[in-house]
Automatic annotation (TrEMBL), chains A, B:
SUPFAM superfamilies: CinA-like (SSF142433), Molybdenum cofactor biosynthesis proteins (SSF53218). PANTHER family: NICOTINAMIDE-NUCLEOTIDE AMIDOHYDROLASE PNCC, NMN AMIDOHYDROLASE-LIKE PROTEIN YFAY. The gene is cinA. Residues 4-171 form the MoaB/Mog domain. This is Putative competence-damage inducible protein. Belongs to the CinA family.
Length: 417, 417
């Protein structure tokens, strides 16, 4: 089964945005065992989109298009795809109702004429409700080919794909795919790759693929067989081998679980509370923790102490510490973590202080120098990091490593129970 | 002059990496005033690459290929492109020398046979030295068409493009592009589009394009002319018209400026300080503010008060308020903002309290109900919002709207000065 992507949007051709949808959809299609040989990008232009779609339909079984489903005149993916497939558009009462509903609850109360364009659907098509916007997704089938239209914004495309399109594509395939994501934190990409070079070189079924993210490396193990049970059995020895090689660096084997979810779960299990004391990450750790539904059980409050005065006032960091060692120092990070836990009455506190740049670095304390502290169960540890990259990348790395250190502290403590 | 991209690499088709090269090259080509109508991705497969390149050469003047110039057997971009162009390969003594030099200085001292493959160059081609790797870039010209081959790793591609390819492309182009991004906040995409329908319908030069993001809409106005001055002059009436129609909703005309940067700049100008009092956004507003370099001048501290107890303890929200109105209420948001400013001694404080879901919603207070408060210059306003979508999307919308409300309060105050 051959699948092909067409991403629609002049903003992609102008380089206004990076095409993360293509990477996301490619990864998912690979996971489903579909072969992909072509991806393309065209602008908001009916003629060129038509040509691209015709070419794609000639060489592939399934064509996924993303973007161009919005209410504006630019948006013409649906109209063009329906024309290429030779299927007329018709208003879908259900979609019209959903748009009315959406606007009733939206801050923008005015429905303009162009919004109703989004309720038009190719006759006989499968309509995919959009939980995060007004443009429904659409699946058209004809002459053994499928054309799938998805909205461009990743916040709409991803939930729609996970909720509906994945299952649809899975059913087109005779073989069952069994895939497990082994998520590793605290080790670099090339280190991980080196450790599994032999497994990669000899892979057949299951296969193994690496995906590097900030602060973590994901390994996807995929097996194909006639039944799920059989495929799972094929994957098992490889998974066992990975657990043997990476041990506690594996924080989950659940693809949909994030590091922060694992941490919130850990703390919940132990009925412990967490607080954050952030300087250069400026709230990013708290934001990741509170992204977990139900985080309120373990996270009651967080402090962003950006200035020295705030570090003193809110976290009781000693004046002499700031004067003698500076705000970016092991000692400040330690006091922030320790006092943060004490003052807020929390069982754990992670702290971050560093120089994210672009200015403010010195020879002694260059941009990228970050101290991360963690107080857990009355023990406080601090680690020094030298991160590379731009301001936002340094902050993201610091955030990820704060979560990794917190997890390490919880695990280490567990070992001593 | 029409340019087209072909990115070569199976890792792109598998979704192992995000295609940042395409975004980078597209943006540069747009800046150079080159028109781009197509981008494509193919794997390391000679037949499909050949087909793609032939198609591209039929419809474009310049084709830029990235990737597949490495020393391994997989790497066949150069061989395939030379074949399509009908130009034989020949060893280039200069490139051979550079490879020898590179290995002398590298940690990998062993030159294998396949490394010499990289010294082969199409006859008469322009060779672009690679300062960051062994694969030289190549420009082939024939029958008025140019084919440009660049290495895949961004760390090699970007310096090579900036150093050599930019100038080469600039010389091919007689026209200059002048582009301005008009960034609008606080209005929905279809509302904005409706307001400018006449401008869109009648666009020729300049053109106008809309880009929707969370909480904002960007309008790109692009004019082409023989000189930058002339192009700027062409764009001016359109820009004036947009200012007339959207007024204060336009927060910047600087493409590289974010809403948070504009706000930090506003506050700096007025020597004012800001704090944040966040519940459901859990630090996201503070994180956006501190993403601005130099935010420390205006942002000293932020509070994440996730629990009722933290709201009482850190922000002095009245027990009776929480009991009678609940944490998600106008009154709580008001006290959070007002007390937040007072307690921290800040001139401004934005507060957010709401239900981000997925659970915790009631009929009276459904998921998505968010109150955003802003205390500025001793006046406090609160707005009620009903956001749609998943937890993360609700939080992002709340964050964006908190920044928008803060900007509104600053502007309103300015009017009364």
């Amino acid at each position: 089964m051959v699948v092909e992507l067409i991403c629609v949007g002049t903003e992609l051709l102008l380089g206004n945005i990076v095409n993360t949808n293509a990477a996301y959809l490619s990864e998912k299609c690979a996971l489903l065992g579909l072969s992909m040989y072509h991806q393309s990008v065209v602008g908001d232009n009916a003629e060129r989109l038509k040509e691209s779609l015709e070419t794609a339909l000639n060489r592939s079984d399934v064509v996924i298009l993303s973007g161009g489903l919005g209410p504006t005149q630019d948006d013409l993916t649906k109209e063009t795809a329906a024309e290429v497939m030779g299927i007329p558009l018709k208003e879908d009462p259900h979609s019209r109702e959903r748009i009315e509903e959406y606007f009733k609850n939206s801050q923008y109360k005015v429905i303009t004429d162009n919004n109703w364009k989004q309720a038009l659907v190719p006759e006989g098509a499968i309509v995919l409700d959009n939980e995060n916007g007004t443009a429904p997704g659409i699946i058209m089938e004809k002459n053994g080919k499928s054309v799938i239209l998805l909205p461009g914004p990743p916040g709409e495309l991803i939930p729609m794909f996970e909720g509906k399109v994945y299952d649809y594509l899975n059913k087109l395939q005779p073989e069952i795919i069994y895939s497990t994501m082994v998520r590793i934190c605290g080790l670099g990409e090339s280190f991980v790759e080196n450790e599994i070079r032999d497994l990669i070189d000899n892979q057949t079924n299951p296969t193994i693929a690496t995906y590097a993210k900030i602060g973590q490396v994901d390994l996807r193990v995929t097996a194909k067989a006639a039944s799920e049970k059989e495929a799972a059995k094929l994957a098992k020895p490889m998974l066992k081998e990975l657990v043997k090689r990476f041990g506690d660096h594996i924080y989950t084997m659940d693809e949909h679980k994030s590091l922060e979810e694992v941490i919130v779960h850990f703390l919940k299990e132990r009925s412990l509370t967490l607080t954050t004391a952030e300087s250069c990450t400026g709230g990013m750790i708290a934001a990741r923790i509170t992204d977990v539904p139900g985080a309120s059980e373990v996270f009651k409050q967080g402090l962003v102490t950006y200035s020295n005065r705030a570090k003193r006032k809110l976290l009781d960091v000693k004046k002499t510490t700031l004067k003698e060692y500076g705000a970016v120092s092991e000692k400040t990070a330690k006091e922030m973590a320790k006092n943060g836990a004490f003052i807020t009455g929390s069982d754990a506190c992670v702290s971050v202080t560093g120089t994210a740049g672009p200015t403010g670095g010195t020879e002694e304390k260059p941009v990228g120098l970050v101290y991360i502290g963690c107080c857990y169960n009355n023990k406080t540890v601090v680690k020094e990091f030298h991160f590379k990259g731009e301001r936002q990348k340094i902050r993201e790395q610091a955030t990820a490593n704060a979560l990794i250190l917190l997890r390490e502290c919880i695990l280490a403590d567990k070992g001593q129970e």
